[in-house]
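Why predict the complex rather than its parts? Because the way molecules touch one another can change local conformation, and only a joint prediction can capture that. The input here totals 836 residues.
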Amino acid sequence: MSATFLLDVRDVCKQFPGVRALDGVELRVLPQEVHALLGENGAGKSTLLKILAGALHPDRGEITLHGVRLEATETPRERQRMGLVTIYQEFNLLPFMSIAENLYLGREPTRRGIIDWPTMYERSRALLASLGLNADPRREVRHLSVAHQQMVEIGRAVAQKAKLIVMDEPTAALGSREVEILHTVIRELRTRGVSFIYVTHRLDEVKSVCDSFTVLRDGRYVARGDVRTVETRDLVRLMVGRDVEFSKRMRTAPLGETVIAVKGISRARDSSGRHAVALEDLSIEVRAGEILGFAGLVGAGRTELARIIFGADHCDRGVMYLKGSELKPLQSPRDAIRAGIALVPEDRKQQGCFLEQSIGQNMTLPSLKRIARWGIFVDEMKERQLVEEYRTALRIKMANSAVAVGTLSGGNQQKVLLARCMALQPKVLIVDEPTRGIDVGAKTEVHQLLFEMAQSGMALIIISSEMPEVIALSDRIVVFREGRISGSLEARDATEHELMRLMAISTAATPAREAAV
Amino acid sequence: MSSRTDVVAWLRRYGTSLFLLALIVFFGLENSRFLSMRNITNILTEVSIYGIIAVGMTFVILTAGVDLAVGSLLAFAGMSGACLMRAIGADYSLSWLVALSTAIAVGTLAGYLQGKAVTFFSIPPFIVTLGGMTIWRGATLILNDGSPVAGFDANYRWWGAGSIAGIPVPIFLFGLIAAGGFVTQRYTRYGRYIYAVGGNPEAARLNGLDVPAIITSVYLIVGGLSGLAGFLLSARLGAAEAVGGIGYELRVIASVVIGGTSLAGGRGGIGGTIVGALLIGVLTNGLVIMHVSSYWQQVVIGLIIVAAVAFDTYAKSHR
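Output of the joint prediction:
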């Protein structure tokens, strides 16, 4: 009976020390369908994906692919040969090798034992073209944008003749337009007979690209169904067990004076590819108690400007005023922090957390100077007080502050980073992607915290790829397009449609951009 | 609760100490001379000289770096001190002070230069210190044309053979420096910064840390400690030798690594390093007492380094 399903997962259990990660999970995927796997962080999605990929062995349960029972002892490589390919959030590409080499790694076409480069390039070109990517297969992967690297990953799966492609949060690092392209490719591959398991936190995508869904909660199977017959609201309820909606900001206090003003920031394109977009004449200002939203596609200049304000990257021209007095050009984040500017970076793991270090150490690192005796010895009493103060204020769930940050859920990690910035008592706080990759419940909490911070008189800059989030959080929104500010609007007048119009690239420019790759 | 994972975690934490204890018991039963006061003092003095450097090396490795030049630098700094002292004229009671301060100053300066090369030119520390390893050795040979400098007075030799409150001076100093290193690592801002830089350099920068300065400082520290060790070794041997400290880089790095500090940075600490240094000292001495040839000693120590790291990696993947 299970033969009608492409993938049939039954009663899978997995126990980790101290946690039951999966408890009787089931998952059924039909041929030629895109199946959404939904659940909050900690629901067990990642564990299930690893079991499917062969990277973890289940304690119990049965998995069949195409009616063939999968053995627990199979390696990821064997699973791939059977047609089950997993694309993780962190890609498995070799950055210094060409696109073609990545596509055919380990399966290079050969002639008399020697790699047949012309054939390999020819096939790569055809494969990329079928995915709508006009790129030179000899190009090194590290020069590609995230979206294009993802296409190479998908291309590799196709080259392996995958029947089932598992994608873990494929759109977490993509802008709206890139998401559209990805969805087009997924639909196209579906017509060619490929099925997908699609893990995402963006529920609007489920409606637009998926056919069916399975929801997990706390390691257990909760529900499955047809996407057409379910409301997004119901999905949320299934995931969290309650109703959640982004609440808009209700600002009570009037805005204060201008805290930070940035005028005429410009930066030329960098030929090395580190700064791919030229920034032209960017000016913004934020007042005390205000939340300014930065909207735009990835690479349009939002994160770039934030990093310049924070001193993490240089700029060619431009001036900054903090509370009316001109700031000397910031050479480093160190200068920025001293001046009272703090940043929560977009990439929690790479740029934010010290995963091996304790929660307490992560939280107090930039504030140590303030709580050190004679500037040298960390005053552990004061440190504990500080950690306790912000743990309570931010409602961080943890056993104790000596636990490594890497063991926390994404939402709690994000709160630790927010706490770290708050402990600096900054005048300006920049939060890049405040809720990327964290579950719905934690999102609302983080939003609430950001509101509270603005309420206390801080000037906030929020960058988000999720339009509903920018609209809900901001008082005012600045929209970036290709290194320029394409518009600025009051959040109460903003609609997703209007934002999209300001963000989107005019259709005439599209082919040129593709050709440039 | 999986008991196997608990056992692995426990072993990871105490395995090296347990192994050290087992070795001591084994050698003690094997030969009664091993646990004599004299032999213990002997082992500890031996351990102290490279142990002092290992304290600094722990900081270097915590920042995900490494310093291969410590053995050569030890010889260079020791030789510099002895040469300068001789040049001034070694016939006054504080002449050792010239040698000591010169050795430490030379070591510190050389370490600083290596650190600057690592941070300013972004050259991998492995390469910089590989270069340093031959540069300082060559410079030592140039200084006195390859011959040793000997003929130190009693005040100088006190640093190698004398004692403070019944404790031989090198051991006393090692204890002091190890304690200082531990306090730095555990209780100071600087210690936290070292872990942060090693754990995630980009995040450290975004948290306002001066990453290049911190990295430079750890090479400076290990350089200064190498200088001190060079002085102590010359005082112990009664001569500053151009071939002094050959192979010390191996013993020092092995102490740190066996002690559980990760070469990837950000994890480990001085406590483990001290156990690691003792383990190497006990093993070398025990094998000598058992009349195992020095050729085999090298094989055994090499195997233990690989086994220690292999176990650590295994334990990490099973937590």
